[in-house]
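Morning. Coffee machine broken again, so started the prediction first thing and wrote up yesterday's gels while waiting. Chain of 166 residues, entered below exactly as on the submission form.
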Amino acid sequence: MKDDFEPKRKALLERLARMKGTKSGHRTATSGSRKTSRATAPSPNTCSLSPKRCENIVLFGAPSLFLKNLASSLLGITNVTCCDDVDKMVQACLNCSPPIVILDIDEPTDWRGTTDVFTALSMELPETKILICAKDPFAPHPANLESRGAILLSKPVYTKDIVACF
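Came back before lunch.
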């Protein structure tokens, strides 16, 4: 029986390795059958928002499963752009003035970067609604930003909560 198990195990491992090798990284919102020209998927060290292409919602945070899922859930409703660099995010938002910005404050995003983006955008674009997503809404950093005018959403974030902000 052991002799029968090993060849099947090796064949299965080889098949899984081939399947893993043929995948092209992670599934993005702009690839495959879900191709759309309205959104960009979160990717490391990118900010695709430009003055020529104004978006409805801009997401800020380190590339994570949370931002990837949030971006894909908002694709059918609005245009979405993701950014993970503080300076590029602020400059792009100043050029485009999006009506809603969603900031992730939890790890792996550094809360200091989120606070910097919030401070800059709240001073320069007071009409922009800034949503802060946090696992613990009673933690000091999210509560501080809420007291300064941010709209605090506790995770998990539902699309209907974001749509209500329009």
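The longest helix spans residues 2-22. Going to sketch it on the whiteboard this afternoon.
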